[in-house]
Amino acid sequence: MIQAGIIGATGYTGIELYRLLRSHPAVQIAWLTSENSAGQRLSDLFPCPWDEPLLAMADAPLAEADVVFLCLPHAASMPAVAAVRAAGVKAIDLSADFRLHDAATYQRWYQTPHSQPALLAEAVYGLPELHRAEIAGAGLVANPGCYPTSVILGLTPLARAGWLAGQVIADSKSGVSGAGRKPSLTTSFVEANENLSPYSIGYSHRHIAEMEQELKAEGGTMNDERQKLQIVFSPHLLPVSRGILSTLYVTLPDSVDEAAVRAAYNDAYRGEPFVHLLPAGKVATLQHVVHSNRCAIGLTFVPNSPTLIVTSSIDNLLKGASGQAVQNMNVLFGLAETMGLRNT
Ligand SMILES: NC(=O)c1ccc[n+]([C@@H]2O[C@H](COP(=O)([O-])OP(=O)(O)OC[C@H]3O[C@@H](n4cnc5c(N)ncnc54)[C@H](OP(=O)(O)O)[C@@H]3O)[C@@H](O)[C@H]2O)c1
Q1: Cα–Cα distance between 299 and 315 in angstroms, integer?
Q2: pLDDT at 227
Q3: What's the pLDDT tens digit per position in 89-145?
Q4: Which of 44, 180, 191, 316 has its CA at a distance of 20 to 30 angstroms from the CA of residue 9?
Q5: Could you tell me if 26 and 89 are in contact, meaning their C-beta atoms sit under 8 angstroms apart?
Q6: How far is the CA of 324 from the centre of ligand 1 (A)?
Q7: Which CATH architecture has domain 147-316?
């Protein structure tokens, strides 16, 4: 059995991981950590029957685990990942700290220096549909962000075909669990309920960096400065508990028709267990994916126009976080990629 530790088990991604791992047939939970609730049990914090104790990170026997999942806010994760790797244990980090390949880019978007630049070199961006082979041999997997998972999977076939250039508009809506369990005014019931609020619009949200990094690497760039890929990303807070829907507006080259685009998506995702390509006439919705590890993708063509509208939906806590982390663990340990996720 694979021994798994979870650092930051008391947050939304941490408890979701615990739920998935406790019923995973090849995994045993080694230990869970919390700083604020060390000494308490999971059932003290969540309405659940599980009496698993919570340890402070400093007391967690890191080396007893085969893999450690880190579910901490960005910046807090850097030293914790370093400690896990120093103990010789594989790490799957759900924060943004190891997703960007370049320390200067991290500092620019996250306004804090990267304290572990040497570890960036070994980190693999953990989107199995793009990087399965590198993940299999990795010591450190940087689990993608939730919005980026929906946008990157929605656009990758176009990038690979060389059809993604210039400005692409990504209009995304996320359920409130995307902001984590820590209370805040904007996510409080009265502020969020029956409301729909854009935030961090105007090319300012941090997730843009990983969207552009990955899509450019897949081919979504051009030498001509005017044609360089730019994701104009507008996130919104939607008053549901979970789920992300990204509606992506792309201008296709004149020579590309619907049949060619559909063929590119079919080729890119043939055999992918967690990508659900919808038939013509269907659009992705939250109900396609909530409580599942799937990404649903729909393609809508605007008649007599080069505009393609891609709808891409995921559950932010599953394919956008903890489900994807389990998928990555399955790849890391050579297990069937769907193990522990088949029914989600
Ligand atoms: N929520 C999502 O949909 C989602 C999706 C993709 C990625 N992520 C990323 O995953 C990470 C966790 O997100 P979340 O939504 O689970 O957050 P969360 O609900 O706010 O939970 C954060 C966890 O981190 C711990 N923590 C907070 N500050 C800490 C610090 N300075 N040092 C050590 N531990 C600390 C908390 O532990 P105690 O309070 O118990 O000490 C708690 O267990 C974040 O980096 C987030 O960006 C989240």
Answers
A1: 19
A2: 73
A3: 999 999 999 999 999 999 999 999 999 999 999 999 999 999 999 999 899 999 999
A4: 191
A5: no
A6: 16
A7: 2-Layer Sandwich (3.30)
Topology of domain 2-121, CATH? Rossmann fold (3.40.50)
Encoding tokens for residue 326?
């389990």
Q: Whose CA is nearest to atom 39 of ligand 1?
A: 36
Residues of the chain short of pLDDT 50, as ranges, are none
Rounded-to-integer distance, Cα 265 and Cα 244, Å: 20
The domain locations on the chain are: 2-121, 147-316
Closest CA to 42 of 54, 56, 24: 54
| Tokens 């992300």 sit on residue | 244
Is residue 35 lining ligand 1, measured as CB closer than 6 Å? yes
**Measuring from atom 40 of ligand 1, which residue has the nearest CA?**
34
- Say what the pLDDT of residue 228 is: 87
What order of strands is seen across the sheet that includes strand 295-301? 197-198, 230-237, 167-174, 244-251, 307-314, 295-301, 275-277
